[in-house]
Amino acid sequence: LIEACLDVNYKIEGEDETAGRTSLFYACVKGLQDIVKYLIEQGADVNGTENSGQSCLHIAAAMGHAVIVQILCEHGANVNQQFHLEGKYVTAYDLAESLQHDHVCQLLKSFNARQSPHCELSSNPETN
């Protein structure tokens, strides 16, 4: 268990909605900027996904954490990475737009993010 905690890319095992999440993912959910920076410096995978395919950038965009989004993008996060949600393949931009995080949308555009074609999500997508 201690060794697992030292592995910045360790993924939680299981079958529920938390399966595949890493410490970086949780830091992005909570908006912990210093922890996100530290984990990336220690080699955390900015493009890693949980078992559903959702990345740290997806969750940071959905939560409206613009500073976290910027940190991830500056460290090579794939701004056009997609995952399956509500029967569609969506990007971080799609999530931010559906949740009206306009500041995050503008930031993602500055990193050449694209909206998925014909992607309309509910106003409250279940990103967990």
From TrEMBL:
User: Gene3D superfamilies given for it?
Assistant: Ankyrin repeat-containing domain
Q: Which InterPro entries match?
A: Ankyrin_rpt, Ankyrin_rpt-contain_sf
Query: Which residue ranges contain the repeat ANK?
Result: 19-51, 52-84
Which keywords has UniProt assigned to this entry?
ANK repeat, Repeat
Q: Specify the superkingdom.
A: Eukaryota
What is the name attached to this protein's record? Uncharacterized protein
Q: What is the lineage of its organism?
A: Eukaryota, Metazoa, Spiralia, Gnathifera, Rotifera
